[in-house]
Write a structure and sequence with these properties.
heterodimer, A: about 230 residues, mainly alpha, MetI-like fold, B: about 250 residues, alpha/beta, D-Maltodextrin-Binding Protein, domain 2, 6-stranded mixed beta sheet, 5-stranded mixed beta sheet, 11 strands, about 45% helix, elongated
């Protein structure tokens, strides 16, 4: 018995791909940002932190609207798109990745920043007295110490991208295999009264969300115990 | 003494305001996205004539259907098709003999670029990256372009270029923001737009888009809802409907 139609699997795979790529990108982009926010003494750094956190408060429609315009042929999409033979970056998987990076950034930067801050100056000072270069100290001291922060950031970033809906709806164009992610597929099933499929996918999401939050809690508990 | 007078005046004012609203009833109307502009004008004329207020919600017909089956507080549905009103009657959620066709929609291929859309040869040439349509499973204005493209034997070639808006409003918006070069929209959406280029898709390429209105059970006893259904068949509504490029349905 086929529990799911083939066109139900596609959104699931696509969603996982999108979340995985976004999470990896955010690790690269988010770590230096978090590091800078944790260590810098610049008076304007909280301004930057606030900008990073904006998607927490803004409705996804705001981000979706700006992205639709920004990815369009009269803006960024018109500049970058032609390099890939595209007119616009909207309606593409790449466009969704760009949107997701902005949308999920605070969920990755925040925990990593907190972990760097909780570590304090001392470990790095010790590393310096042992003549470790700053870069080496970062990799061998700071990153391992901040590991729970990285884990939390990765899990939250991944989960939040999976849960994205409004932005995708506005810039995706609902293209199967390209931009039709899980949340949009569920919306479609509900709208066309295919409730069996909607139930299966929605139920799966509930289980997924439960597992994510439980995992998070367990990671934090273990980190707290290790730190004590 | 002065405060007493003031209070009396305020009370009188409040009473007058309250009385003013007490006679006029309200009704909640779910309106298919393509009919947005026309519905706003009709609601304004309706209020001017009867004093009743029609509170309009705009969206995809499929979405409204699902919401109504889940007890949404709508009293009237102006659908973009005749299927869903029919189903609502069958489901026992709408008043059986209240259903009628208020408008017949027309499909237009539209681009913001002057001279871009010339006719069916634009589709056959396929000289574009993205063509936007409304979600064909949720909106009849999305199903019609598929029929038309199939009739012109260009569907297989164009299929990879199709992007779907959640409603016909979003299909329009994708073209309007330039993200799609062209798209199938409702004539009513571009009737007041002078810029760009367009081709009215011949009626023989797609099934007649009969847009039906139906009085929902929730509105069966509502004065304003019943008045709105009557108003929608009348000459004032007809003028608006035709102005927006629909064929008037109630007479046919």
């Amino acid at each position: 018995m086929d529990l799911l139609l083939a066109d139900t699997w596609q959104p699931i795979r696509l969603t996982l791909e999108l979340a995985a790529i976004t999470t990896v990108l955010l690790m690269f982009v988010g770590t230096p940002v978090a590091w800078w926010l944790a260590r810098s003494r610049a008076w304007w750094k909280e301004g930057v932190a606030t900008v990073v956190s904006l998607p927490l408060v803004l409705p996804p429609t705001v981000l979706g609207f700006y992205l639709l315009v920004a990815l369009g042929p009269n803006a960024l999409g018109g500049l970058v798109g032609p390099l890939f033979g595209l007119r616009t970056l909207a309606f593409t998987f790449e466009g969704l990745v760009i949107g997701s990076v902005f949308y999920s950034m605070p969920f990755v930067v925040q925990p990593i920043r907190n972990a760097f801050e909780a570590m304090g100056d001392r470990p790095l000072e010790v590393a310096a007295t042992l003549r470790a270069s700053p870069l080496r100290a970062f990799w061998t001291v700071a990153v391992p110490l901040a590991r729970p922060g990285f884990l939390t950031g990765a899990v939250l970033g991944f989960a939040h991208t999976v849960g994205e809906f409004g932005v995708v709806l506005m810039i995706g164009g609902n293209i199967p295999g390209e931009t039709k992610v899980l949340s949009v597929a569920i919306y479609d099933f509900v709208e066309t009264a295919q409730w069996r499929e909607a139930h299966i996918l929605a139920g799966g999401m509930v289980v997924f969300a439960f597992a994510v939050i439980l995992t998070m809690t367990l990671i934090e508990k273990r980190a707290a115990r290790a730190g004590a | 003494m002065k405060t007493m007078k003031l209070m009396a005046a305020a009370l009188g004012l409040a009473a007058a305001l309250f009385a003013g609203t007490a006679f006029a009833a309200q009704t909640n109307v779910a309106v298919a996205a393509n009919f947005t502009e026309a519905a706003k004008e009709i609601a304004a004329a309706f209020k001017a004539k009867t004093g009743h207020e029609a509170i309009l919600s705009f969206g995809a017909s499929g979405q409204f259907y699902t919401q109504i089956t889940q007890d949404a507080p709508f009293q009237i549905m102006l659908s973009a098709d005749d299927e869903r009103p029919k189903k609502l009657v069958e489901d026992g959620l709408a008043v059986a003999d209240s259903r009628f066709t208020y408008a017949i929609g027309k499909l237009v291929l539209w681009s913001k670029t002057d001279g871009f859309v010339k006719g069916e040869e634009t589709l056959k040439g396929g000289n574009f990256a993205k063509i936007s349509i409304a979600n064909p499973t949720a909106a009849p204005y999305g199903a019609a372009p598929i029929e038309a493209m199939k009739a012109l034997k260009v569907y297989d070639a164009l299929q990879p270029k199709i992007v779907q808006g959640n409603s016909i409003a979003q299909a329009f918006q994708f073209v309007d923001t330039g993200n799609a070069e062209l798209g199938f929209v409702a004539l009513s959406q571009v009737i007041n737009v002078t810029a760009g280029s367009r081709w009215t898709v011949p009626q023989d390429l797609y099934t007649l888009i009969r847009q039906d209105a139906v009085l929902l059970k929730k509105g069966a006893d509502n004065e304003a809802a019943k008045a709105f259904m009557t108003f929608l068949k009348g000459p004032e509504a007809r003028a608006v409907i035709e102005k927006f490029g629909y064929a008037f349905g109630a007479s046919s």
